[in-house]
Write a structure and sequence with these properties.
Blueprint (H helix, E strand, L loop, with lengths): L12 H18 L3 H63 L3 H8 L1 H6 L2 H16 L3 E6 L4 E4 L18 H7 L4 E6 L6 E11 L2 E10 L2 H8 L4 E5 L5 E4 L14 H10 L18 E4 L2 E9 L7 E7 L3 H97 L3 H29 L7 E4 H19 L1 E5 L7 E4 L1 H18 L6 E9 L3 E7 L30 H11 L3 E6 L5 E8 L5
The chain binds adenosine-5'-diphosphate.
The site of adenosine-5'-diphosphate has 21 residues, from helix 12 and helix 13.
C-alpha cells in the first residue's frame, strides 16, 4: 500500500480575493479611531461629575455623621457637668429653708431686727456664701423684700432692702414650690442661676431663701474643649455658653409675645437679645464664617432648657473635596487605562489585519504571476514536446514519401491495386500525424472548459502517445493494463492530459539514474470514484520533500531542469475538477501519485 498524505494546496484565488475585500472594509472601520475616542470622552463627561458628586456627598455625610456622634458624646459630658453644677446650688436653699435662724427672722422680722439677729444672719450667710463659692445667698419675706443677704456689706451692691416680688422663682416659692430661674442680676447686672425654697411655718409660707450661683466656673470648664457649647432657655436665648459673645443672643428672632414676657420678668434686664441666626435642630449650620454640625439635647429640668454643641466641620469639607478629586482622578485614570488597552488591542488587530492584507495581496499577485508562469511552463513543455513530435513525425513523413515514390512507379507499371494500398497507408499515416498535432494544439490551450464525462483509457493512451518518443529513448519498460469497458470520470480531457504528462515527466526524471526503468500505470475503481496510479521505480520521495511537494516553485531539480510548478499546477487542476491528487512512496520502492476523480456514470 502506498503511504498517502492529503494535499495542502494554495488557497484558491477567489476566496483570497473575497477575504481581501472583507478585510478592506474591516480596515476602513479600524482606521477610524473617532468613535472610540468620542465614546471614551462621553463616558468621562458623564462619569466624572457623577462620581465626584457622589464621592463628595458620601465623604461629607460620613464626616458629618462622625462629628454628630462625637457631638452627642460631648453633649452627655457637658450635660452632666451642668447637672452637677445646678445640683450643688439647689441643695443650699433646701438646707437653709429649715434653718431655725431663718424661720425666726421671717416669723417676726421686727423683733429680729431689734435683737440684732438680722446682722448675725447676714454674717452667717456671707461666710456660707464664701465657703460654697456661690454668688449670693439671701432671704426674702412674703412680699419679696430682702431681709438678709450675704452681700449686706457691699453698699449699693447689697440686696438688703431690694424687692424681688416679680421674679418667677419668688412667685414659685410663695406658692410653696421650689423656684429655679436663670436671669441677669438686677443689682449686680451679673447673670446667674437662682434657686429659691419656700420657708414655711404652720402651713403658711413666711418667705423664701434664694441662692444665686454664677455659671462662670462651669463656663470656664467648658472653655477647655474645642467645641462651642451653649444652653438656651425656652425662648431660644443663649444664657450659659463658652462663647461670651453669644451670651444673651437668641437662636432665632424673638416674636413680640416672647419679648413682652421677657420684659415683664426682667429676666435678661435690658439686653437686646439679638438673633444669632442659628437654627436649632438644623444639623448643619454656619456662623462667623465657619461651618458646624450642631447637636442638641433638651434638658430634663422642666424649664425648657436645651443644651447645644457645635462641632466645627473644619477641613472635613476640604477632605471630601480632595476625596472627590481623587475619585475623579481614579475614574479618569481607569477610563484612560481602559482606553489604552482597547486602543492597543485595536492597533494590534489593525496591524495584524494590515499584515494579513499585505500577505493576501502578495498571494493574489503571486497567483496572477503563477497563472502566467503556468502558461510559460506549458509553452516550454510544448517546446520540448514539439521536439519529440518532430522526431515522431519524421518517421511517418519518410514513410509517406516512400509510399508516394512507390505509387508513382506502380502507376507506371499499371499496378493500380498496389497504388490504392499505398494511398491507403498514406491516409492512415496522415491521420496519425493529425492526431498528434491536434493534441499539441489542445495542450497549448489556456482557458479551462467545463467538466464532462471523459474516458480514462483514452486520456492515458493520448498521453502515452505524446510521450512515446521519450519513453522509448529512455528505454522505459511500461506496465499499462487498461481497465475493461469504457470507464468515464468527470473532468476535462486536455487538463487531465496536462496532469498526467506532468506526472509521467516527473517519473521519467526520477528514474534517470536507474539501470532498469519501469513505469506502471494502473486504474482502480469503486462505485463512486476512479483512481489513476502512476508509479515509477525511482528513489521515491524523501521525507523532507514530501510536505512541500505541492508548493509552487518547490523543486529539487537543477536550475533549468525544473520550475517546481508541475505538481502545484496539477494539484490545482485535479482540485478544480473536484478530485484529489495524493503523493506517496510505494512499499516496494519508487514514488506513487494517485489521481482520484468522481465516476461519471455509476458502475
Ligand atoms: P519540477 O518537476 O519542475 O521540479 P514538480 O512540481 O513537478 O516540479 O515537482 C516538484 C518536486 O517533486 C521535484 O523537484 C521532485 O523533487 C519531486 N518529485 C516529483 N515527482 C517525483 C517522483 N516521481 N519521484 C521523486 N520525486 C518526485
Amino acid at each position: 500500500m502506498p503511504s498517502e498524505r492529503p494535499i495542502e494546496g494554495l488557497a484558491t484565488g477567489i476566496s483570497s480575493r473575497q477575504r481581501l475585500c472583507a478585510l478592506r472594509s474591516e480596515l476602513a472601520l479600524l482606521h477610524e479611531p473617532w468613535p472610540l475616542l468620542v465614546g471614551i470622552l462621553g463616558l468621562l463627561i458623564l462619569l466624572v461629575p457623577v462620581v465626584a458628586w457622589l464621592t463628595v456627598r458620601w465623604s461629607e455625610s460620613h464626616a458629618y455623621q462622625r462629628l454628630a456622634a462625637q457631638g452627642r458624646e460631648r453633649l452627655t459630658l457637658y450635660g452632666e457637668m451642668l447637672h452637677s453644677e445646678l445640683a450643688k446650688s439647689r441643695n443650699i436653699p433646701v438646707v437653709l429653708s429649715s434653718d431655725r435662724q431663718v424661720i425666726e427672722l421671717l416669723a417676726d422680722p421686727e423683733a429680729a431686727k431689734g435683737e440684732g439677729r438680722i446682722a448675725a444672719l447676714d454674717r452667717r450667710l456671707q461666710e456660707l456664701n464664701a465657703e460654697l463659692g456661690a454668688s449670693a445667698i439671701y432671704v426674702l419675706d412674703s412680699t419679696g423684700l430682702t431681709l438678709a443677704a450675704s452681700n449686706w456689706a457691699e453698699g449699693s451692691g447689697s440686696f438688703v432692702g431690694q424687692r424681688f416680688a416679680f421674679r418667677p422663682y419668688f412667685l414659685a416659692a410663695v406658692h410653696g414650690h421650689p423656684g429655679s430661674y436663670f436671669a441677669l442680676g438686677m443689682t449686680s447686672n451679673q447673670p446667674g442661676h437662682y434657686n429659691a425654697m419656700p420657708v414655711s411655718k404652720g402651713g403658711g409660707v413666711l418667705g423664701a431663701v434664694v441662692v444665686k450661683t454664677s455659671m462662670d466656673r462651669l463656663e470656664r470648664g467648658w472653655s477647655g474643649g474645642a467645641e462651642r457649647v451653649f444652653v438656651t432657655d425656652r425662648f431660644g436665648i443663649v444664657f450659659i455658653t463658652n462663647i461670651p459673645a453669644w451670651r444673651f443672643h437668641s437662636l432665632n428672632p424673638l416674636d413680640a409675645e416672647s419679648m413682652r414676657s421677657l420684659k415683664a420678668s426682667r429676666q435678661y434686664g435690658n439686653e437686646r437679645l439679638p438673633p444669632l441666626g442659628l437654627v436649632a435642630g438644623d444639623p448643619l449650620t454656619s456662623i462667623d464664617g465657619h461651618a458646624y454640625v450642631m447637636v442638641s439635647q433638651p434638658l430634663a429640668d422642666g424649664q425648657g432648657w436645651t443644651l447645644h454643641v457645635l462641632m466645627q466641620i473644619g477641613d472635613a469639607r476640604a477632605r471630601a473635596r480632595d476625596l472627590g478629586l481623587l475619585a475623579v482622578a481614579g475614574v479618569g485614570l481607569t477610563v484612560l487605562v481602559v482606553y489604552f488597552f482597547i486602543h492597543r488591542a485595536r492597533m494590534r488587530r489593525r496591524y495584524t489585519r494590515e499584515l494579513e492584507e499585505r500577505v493576501l495581496e502578495r498571494t493574489a499577485a503571486l497567483m496572477e504571476k503563477q497563472d502566467e508562469l503556468v502558461q510559460a511552463a506549458k509553452l516550454a513543455a510544448l517546446g520540448q514536446m514539439s521536439a519529440g513530435m518532430a522526431h515522431e513525425i519524421n518517421q511517418p513523413l519518410a514513410a509517406i514519401r516512400s509510399y508516394a515514390d512507390n505509387a508513382r512507379t506502380l502507376i507506371d507499371l499499371g499496378r493500380n491495386e498496389l497504388v490504392r494500398e499505398n494511398l491507403g497507408e498514406i491516409a492512415d499515416l496522415t491521420e496519425r500525424m493529425a492526431r498528434m498535432t491536434g493534441q499539441l494544439k489542445q495542450f497549448a490551450r489556456k482557458s479551462p472548459g467545463s467538466a464532462e464525462p471523459v474516458a480514462v483509457t483514452a486520456v492515458i493512451d493520448g498521453v502515452l502517445a505524446l510521450m512515446a518518443s521519450r519513453l522509448r529513448s529512455d528505454g522505459v519498460e511500461l506496465e499499462w493494463l487498461p481497465p475493461g469497458g469504457a470507464l468515464k470520470v468527470w473532468g476535462e480531457e486536455v487538463r487531465l492530459q496536462q496532469v498526467l504528462v506532468n506526472l509521467l515527466r516527473n517519473a521519467l526524471d526520477a528514474m534517470r539514474e536507474q539501470v532498469e526503468r519501469r513505469l506502471t500505470i494502473g486504474v482502480a475503481t469503486d462505485d463512486r470514484q476512479v483512481h489513476v496510479m502512476v508509479r515509477d521505480n525511482g528513489p521515491g520521495i524523501a521525507s523532507e520533500v514530501l510536505p512541500r511537494l505541492f508548493e509552487p516553485f518547490f523543486t529539487t531539480k537543477q536550475a533549468g531542469d525544473g520550475l517546481g510548478l508541475g505538481l502545484s499546477i496539477s494539484e490545482g487542476i485535479v482540485r478544480d475538477l473536484g478530485g484529489q491528487l495524493v503523493a506517496g512512496n510505494h512499499p516496494g520502492g519508487g514514488a506513487v501519485f494517485t489521481i482520484t476523480l468522481s465516476r461519471a456514470e455509476a458502475a
